[in-house]
Write a structure and sequence with these properties.
Strand content: under 5%
Shape: elongated
Structural class: mainly alpha
Largest sheet: none
Helix content: over 70%
Number of helices: 9
CATH architecture of the largest domain: Orthogonal Bundle
CATH superfamily of the largest domain: Tetracycline Repressor, domain 2
Number of domains: 2
Amino acid sequence: MRRARQDMIAETRGKLIAAARQAFGSVGYAQASMDDFTSAVGLTRGALYHHFGDKKGLLQAVVDQIDAEMSVRLKAIAARAPNRWQAVVDEWIAYIEMALEPEIQRILFRDAPAVLGDQSQCPSAQSCIEALTASLAALKEDGVLIDADPEAMARLINGASSHAAIWIASSPDPEAASKKAVAGFRRMLEGLLRRPDPA
């Protein structure tokens, strides 16, 4: 009985998140009507309030879902890299380039900052920073990177990539902004590499 109830709750939450994600991704948070997307899946506004508190709470759930999917994709990109440094470069550049994808662009990099505020302190962002700090610490230990604090480097890389993604998402020409952002970000990362001592 308990399992059936849990399944029903999960199903209702899943339906609301899917309907909201479609609406937020197509017309944006401000224009998405709660009545429209709840009735589209045969639920009431009351169900939305019960499970998410309000429309803002539902947006957070959608953001969390997209963020988790992005994380899986980024880890797969990093896993294909030939070495640890290239994994860092590939993963973070891929994150910036995801700001070109319409759903991610609108929901994560336009609506979420405007509605939910700074997401840099959320658990998923902290987890990314911790993983990057560990990678940078290992690269520094191996003599690949300059002598700089790994956590400081990780936080600055995270901040720069987030700012670049928001710049792309809000630009009148996202493709052009992305090219500039990726080129600049790549140069910034290269600045962390240790240069061979001159003979």
